[in-house]
Design goal:
- Pfam families: PCI, Rpn3_C, TPR_PSMD3_N.
- It comes from Schizothecium vesticola.
- One of its GO terms (biological process) is regulation of protein catabolic process.
- One of its GO terms (molecular function) is enzyme regulator activity.
- With 576 residues, the protein is mainly α.
- Among the domains are: 148 residues, no CATH class; 67 residues, Orthogonal Bundle (Arc Repressor Mutant, subunit A); 36 residues.
- It is built from 25 helices and 3 strands.
- It has a 3-stranded antiparallel sheet.
- Strand 2 and strand 3 form a beta hairpin.
- The chain starts with 47 loop residues before the first helix and ends in a 15-residue tail after the last helix.
Length: 576
């Protein structure tokens, strides 16, 4: 700088060029005493901590305290109020519903329904009421739906048309959160039903079953009056909660006065309408609900008639298919069709979701599958009982399998007596009582393998039977059914076993191999059917192929007329 010597010229970053070292390393403020005029004074601003401790933050024009750096996260992002975030998450699904209507694609509606599980934990009446109030203007044509939802959750005094506050305009606002700012004519019925489902979820979590039943009945009537394919997945969820609330109201099934039985005509009417409208989601959901209702009241004949007179949709959701196969397997097991029941239950356990939220269904289906395998004369695999998530729940069935495998009738009866309440709660008690003959036949088979010749008296003693006549009848029936390879000598009163042949010389290995191949082929066919393809893609390909043919015809015609030659085409034109 001019007027100063070069050795005292300041440099960038607050440096100092001087011949002498700086003795005092403490920074000086404006109030420090200067030793001479040539000495440089360094001005240091106060730190942030001193600012925060010395003076309070200033207020803005409305009297609110302005946000300082302490209200920000360490990475610089603004902290979002959980209530605001929950409302934004609810309103963010409106864009998905709009896209589902515009593109006629149900996948966006399913994405909105899947988000309910994350919203459910934060759902409160105030959050839901605020979302409804900001979505519906006061003069909306759907205001009666909004008032109905508000009164159902106990927020009837909330007014419609509330504008979101300034805190709602944040950078983390999801796309489509401003859907509620549209006019009343832009509110689609899908938004009404989605908010209604959220209200039903809140009422079920807070155990307000009577309010939930009344609201679900009104929503079911409203869905029935509409004929929109974009409402299919939402209407299926409405009927699910309609039946769920009816089951919770006293008196509970199987009492004849239960509301769950009173709603059967409504469900049958909904099923008939869904079949006519080709509403796959509602059709699958209502069929499953009716099967569950019939099984709760032990109306097996009506459940069988429902299955025989209706066709479950092939393109139904995987969860609904798993439920349908489970209920159908239970019906077939009660009807003594154990082979068919085993096939349905195996398919249900394979289609069951692997997530932790579906553990209850997997456990229930596995319990019934184990009982059916025992009724078929098979012994379940021991690895089934070693699953960590199901080990405690399957322990009574493990004891039952041990008793059946050994053929010990005394242990079998003791296991039933000790765990009768568990078996009744699982709905397998009556099926387990049928296993007594299987236990006796297993005991007879074990004795036929251990002894080449055994008297009927010894069989009666070992199996704890009442008389030798009962033992003779059981042995004869086992021989006739092919359970054992033996002969019965009635005069001398003994059973003589035959020599065991080679099992690989029979057709049993081939049948087992055939069953595995058939299961793999069925899985492949179902995977191919579940594949998704872009809508109307074949039409676009057909249109592009037709345009290409037309261009080739025009180019061939111009070549014939002499307007073009092969050199103009780059030598790649091969003609028609």
């Amino acid at each position: 700088m001019p007027g100063k010597t070069p050795d005292k010229e300041p440099v960038e970053n607050g440096g100092y060029r001087g011949g002498n070292d700086i003795k005092d390393k403490k920074p000086k403020t404006k109030k420090s005493i200067k030793d001479n005029d040539d000495e440089m004074t360094v001005v240091v601003p106060p730190s942030k901590s001193s600012k925060q401790s010395s003076a309070p933050p200033p207020n803005d024009g409305d009297g609110d305290v302005a946000m300082d750096d302490s209200d920000k996260a360490e990475d610089g992002a603004v902290k979002v109020d959980p209530v605001v975030q929950a409302i934004n998450d609810i309103k963010g699904n409106f864009a998905l519903l709009d896209r589902a209507v515009a593109l006629f694609d149900a996948r966006f509606s399913l994405r909105a329904l899947r988000s309910i599980s994350s919203i459910r934990k934060r759902l409160t009446p105030d959050i839901l009421a605020q979302a409804i109030s900001e979505t519906y203007p006061a003069n909306s044509s759907s205001s009666h739906i909004a008032l109905l939802l508000l009164s159902a959750i106990g927020q009837g005094d909330v007014s419609l048309g509330r504008q979101p506050g300034p805190e709602m305009e944040i950078d983390s606002e999801p796309k489509g959160a401003k859907t509620a700012k549209k006019d009343a004519k832009d509110i689609i019925p899908e938004v009404d039903i989605f908010l209604g489902i959220l209200a039903l979820v809140h009422l079920f979590d807070t155990k307000q079953f009577q309010r939930g039943f009344e609201l679900s009945a009104l929503l079911a009537d409203h869905v029935q009056s509409l004929n929109r394919r974009t409402l299919d997945s939402l209407s299926a969820k409405v009927y699910f909660y309609y039946s769920l609330f009816a089951e919770q109201l006293p008196p509970t099934p199987p009492t004849w006065q239960s509301p769950a039985l009173a709603i059967r005509p409504t469900l049958l009417s909904a099923l008939r309408t869904a079949v006519l409208r080709k509403d796959i989601d509602t059709q699958a959901s209502v069929i499953v609900i009716l099967l569950r209702s019939y099984l709760q009241t032990s109306h097996i004949a009506q459940a069988d008639l429902l299955v025989s007179h209706t066709q479950f949709p092939e393109n139904a959701a995987n969860n609904q298919v798993a439920r349908f196969l489970y209920y159908l397997g239970r019906v077939r097991a009660i009807q003594l069709s154990y082979t068919e029941a085993h096939e349905h239950l195996v398919a249900a356990t394979r289609k069951a979701p692997t997530s932790a939220c579906a553990l209850g269904f997997s456990t229930t289906a596995t319990k019934l599958l184990l009982v059916v395998e025992l009724l078929m004369g098979d012994i379940p695999d021991r690895a089934t009982f070693r699953q960590p998530a199901m080990e405690a729940a399957l322990h009574p069935y493990f004891l039952l399998v041990q008793a059946v495998r050994v053929g010990n009738l005394e242990d079998f009866e003791m296991t039933i007596a000790d765990h009768a309440d568990t078996f009744r709660r699982d709905g397998t008690y009556t099926l387990i009582l049928r296993l007594r003959q299987n236990v006796i036949r297993t005991g007879v088979r074990m004795m036929s393998l251990s002894y080449s010749r055994i008297s009927l008296r010894d069989i009666c003693i070992r199996l704890h039977l009442g008389s030798e006549e009962s033992a003779e009848y059981i042995v004869a029936k086992a021989i006739r059914d092919g359970v054992i390879e033996a002969t019965l000598d009635r005069e001398r009163g003994f059973m003589k076993s035959k020599e065991i042949g080679d099992v690989y010389a029979t057709g049993e290995p081939g049948e087992a191999f055939h069953d595995r191949i058939r299961a793999c082929l069925d899985l492949h066919d179902e995977s191919v059917k579940a594949m998704r393809f872009p809508m109307n893609q074949h039409r676009l390909e057909l249109k592009s192929a037709q345009e290409a043919r037309e261009r080739e015809r025009e180019m061939a015609k111009e070549i014939q007329e002499g307007d073009l030659d092969e050199d103009d085409l780059g030598g790649e034109f091969e003609g028609m």
